[in-house]
Amino acid sequence: MAAQGEAGALAASLAELKAYLRIATGDEDAVLAGLLRSAAALCEGFVGQWLIVREARETVAGDGSWQRLSARPVAAILDVRAVDAAGAEEALPPEHYAIDIDASGEGWARLRGVGDGRRLAVRYRAGMAEDMNGLPEAIRQGIVRLAAEHHGARSGEAATPPAVVSALWRPWRRMRLA
To answer: Across residues 105-116, what is the average pLDDT?
Structure first.
């Protein structure tokens, strides 16, 4: 099951986008904030990492093998619970599971011992930075540029993301091989 986490904070500021677009009024703030959220989501998909740290909850197999968590980079694993076939959860003592965060930010969890058909519910925090100011400037600039491009395409023009956006984001791209 994919990690579920609710994005909250913006990855680039509304003021940055308004300055880039040379907009002085607040008439379009809601639209611009939506464009920033959309651009940040596209950035997360491109780089394969969550930008702003947020909490996630994910259910993985409890067959005794190491299970990789889907969101990254993992900052902390907060809680591991057993989930039975009916969906009932039970707190597990630490000796019944193992967790790890490797050097590349991948989070891992496994049930110790023989799997008994239960799954593991893992609650964790993942993301590159606590707030937008902790993100690399190139990522924020790419988000602003993409949001600006989408703003310009509102009048029916085809939006073609500038190549500079992928160039700005590429150094932080993390891909998984299947």
So the answer is: 86
